[in-house]
Amino acid sequence: MKKLAIFVEGKTEQIFVEKLLQEIADKHSIAIEIISVNVNQKGKNISTIKSAIVTLETKFYVLIYNSSGHKNVGSDMRKQYSKLITSGYERVIGLRDVDPTPIHQKSKLQHDLDFLLPKGSIPINIVLAVMEIEAWFLAEYNHFLKLDTSLTPDKIEDIFGFNPQTDNMETRPKPSDDIKQIYNYLGKGYNKSEKQLNRLAANLDYEFIYIKLANSVPRLGEFIGYIDNFIT
């Protein structure tokens, strides 16, 4: 059984990554454990949100580690790296937004994070969603049609001034605001409650993400590439 650890910055990434994994790998062959860090005045409280169910069919064991903050992803990866090696993990991936770092400092941020990652016997990489993971959701424009069949990319362009099909969503300064405006237009909220995040994740077209967007959205393609290489 192969083991992979994925560190994410928050609930949005946690829910998306879990759903993505379930869609990429056969549901019977993958076991997913989710751990979340709760930071309060007394320090960090680490709790298990979901326990992995391992069967004779399980080929892949994935730990999703919610660091609860973009600044914590890299540091948690460093702290847990040796333990993960001892526990038999074969790869470690991190996922966090570029935001709130300005776009012109993206390369420096990536360099600094890569420099601080530990060097050891298993590969470790951190992927930056530009500017936020919501850029990936914008690029998956099909899911808007599930909410309203009239909400085509051209209509989004007429109303909001950008086209999620033809424009580069990684250049949007605040993708989460774009998602919120579109959802508000439809009479639906996007305040990142768990219910709303689950609704969004359920509507995404993962086949389109895996086959099409992985080739056209660079950072998404990088992230999926790491997972794909692990599974295959």
Can you give a write-up of this model?
- With 232 residues, the protein is of the alpha/beta class.
- The chain has 2 domains: 2-132 and 213-231, 3-Layer(aba) Sandwich (Rossmann fold), CATH 3.40.50; 135-201, no CATH class.
- 47% of the residues lie in helices and 20% in strands.
- It has 10 helices and 6 strands; from the N terminus they run βαβββαβαβααααααα.
- The protein has helices at residues 11-24, 70-86, 106-116, 134-139, 142-147, 153-160, 175-185, 194-203, 206-216, 218-231, and strands at 2-8, 30-40, 43-50, 60-66, 91-97, 124-129.
- It has a 6-stranded mixed sheet with strand order 3-2-4-1-5-6, sandwiched between helices.
Work out the number of β strands: 6
Write down the CATH topology of the largest domain.
Answer: Rossmann fold
Largest sheet: 6 strands, mixed
Report the end-to-end length measured between terminal Cα atoms.
13 Å
The overall pLDDT average reads 95
Assign a percent range to the helix content: 40-55%
List the helices and strands in order: EHEEEHEHEHHHHHHH
How large is the radius of gyration? 18 Å
When the domains are counted, the total is 2
Low-confidence stretches: none
Please write the CATH class name of the largest domain.
Alpha Beta
**Alpha plus pi helix count:** 10
Structural class: alpha/beta
What form results from the Cα inertia axes?
globular
| CATH architecture assignment name of the largest domain | 3-Layer(aba) Sandwich
